[in-house]
User: Fold this.
Amino acid sequence: MRLLWLALSALLIACSTVSYNPTVFNYHYEQEIIAEEQPKTLLLASVNVSGEPTLSMLRNVTAKIDAEVVDRLKGAGYKMAPEHLFDNAWNQAIYTYGDFYDPTSGKVDRRNWQAVMASTLASLKQSGQVDAVIFTDLIAHDAQHSPGMNHYARWYGVTRKPATQGAGTGVPVDFNWSQTIKAASLIVTLYDLDGRPLFASRGGIDTLSAIDMRKPHLGFVRRDKILKNSGFIEEGVQLALHPLIPMARYPGKETSEEVEAAQ
Assistant:
């Protein structure tokens, strides 16, 4: 068996929208390999490909996002294997090699992660019931609203207006829009059972910060309600799965009308 490729891990750690958005993620897509091997039966992993657990503030929505991913995969003709197949193989690998995540330091032992991942995929290959494994990592990261007239925040293909919560008289004209906020995005990664990364991309979902209008000195705080907009979730999933599953009106290309308008 080929060794698990770690290059993609480094790539993932490092690096309603319908019009052109230059922030779309530069996806990794092995189109020729997928066309040749034609993986049909996929298995949704119950862990993150990063090796780190999902942040506690995001855990309540992971099931909803995973369900959206599965629905879109099934709609594209993929079959989904029972999730317990992954759990059984993963738990056996952890038992053999030990856990790779230290909750005290928040660090991942990459060598141990590689051993656990390779063992899991080898076990699944031996079972003959799965063609590839798909990982869905829901992450929080820094973002920023623009100083422009509408103060949009743009990242990974989405455009979001500033969120506010609580009653107030409005945001003052001298408000500091350059403050760093938190946003949520979805990372989707597909591995074949030899450990080759077949696909990886990201889609933005929504901001996690809002302007609290109840405070005398306005600033961004964590939103009271996180990731409640189903339309935003659907958009983020579509972006994260493109072009494995092509997204209608994908914002990574300028339309002829937009090109003409820019000239």
Notes: The radius of gyration is 20 Å. The mean pLDDT is 89. Helices lie at 7-14, 31-37, 59-75, 84-97, 110-127, 230-241, 256-262.
